[in-house]
Amino acid sequence: MDITNGDVAATQQHHDATKRSDHDDSSSNQNQSIHDDDVSVSSIIALSELDPPPSRSEILRDKWLESLSGKIHFWVGVTVMALIIIDGAFFFFLLVGAQNMCTPRTNCNPRNWWYNFSIQFLNVLFTYLATVSLPWRLSNTAHLFNGSGKHNRRSSDAGLDLYGRPTEKIWYHISQSRRRIIVFFLILNSLTQYANQATRIIYYSFELQNVFPGTLWTNLFFMLSMMCAAVAGVLQIHAEMGLRKVHPERFPPTLFETLGEYLTKVRNIRRRTREEGGDEEEPTRDGDVEEDRRKLERGRSFFVRNINSFFSNVEPSLGLWGL
């Protein structure tokens, strides 16, 4: 995480990507470009110029967050998310008895052993995400609930980062009140997940978790943790989608939007090539083929730059979820 220059780099990168796209595609991409005057280099205040200067706790926080910003950490998070989906599906099938290992389908061995293993493994994955996301969650909590007036070291108004500096990271443009609600539920998610993990350690076997009081405590904290995560996730996604809709020229498009636009360009070029190639009276000229090839290359470059710009812009958003 580049604390000082990351916002400018993301903005300039996205702007350059738009400027380099070919003229034919510029009209369709103009709403995805970042204007030069959105965030100027001079508006990003260097840490050495901050008043008051960074405290020891803020410097420690920056190092903590930076340690969680590498590619390895990101792909570990993606792998954990994938395992959650796979193991969650396996757990669900065992829960409803969709298995052929034994009968009765919802209470027999080895089904019960695998059922307990899947829920234990699922909880370990959730606990990992609740832990690696905690630095981002705690940092934003401290930033958003640090008082007001003379007691407020760094403003947490919309559009300002953890140091109170102008930023283009979309998370910081969510209203202050909405961010407070989101981080409140995220902190609750971490706490209830730790309680959930504790119950799974205490009631570690299928027999213990399947009778009272194991059934109460394991299911109670599991549901509370999931509900807190769901509320925070819906609020965050809704807020960020709203910002992109209102300011499409300011915030990079999502992965799905970028991929959809790129695939549309590819289909249009290939369709035109087939149509012209099938016309015997007007065979495809070498110049047209070369031009189409250049457009595809520019489209791929634009796609890659947009993806990089998107991930840079949503770094705090993903950090809140352990990515």
UniProtKB/TrEMBL annotation:
InterPro entries xrefs: DUF2985
Keywords associated with the record: Membrane, Transmembrane, Transmembrane helix
TM regions (residue ranges): 72-93, 113-136, 216-235
This protein's record includes keyword Chaperone: no
Biased composition range(s): Basic and acidic residues: 13-26
Pfam families recorded: DUF2985 (PF11204)
KW Transmembrane (keyword) present: yes
Chain spans, region Disordered: 1-36, 272-292
Name under which the protein is recorded: Uncharacterized protein
Organism: Skeletonema marinoi
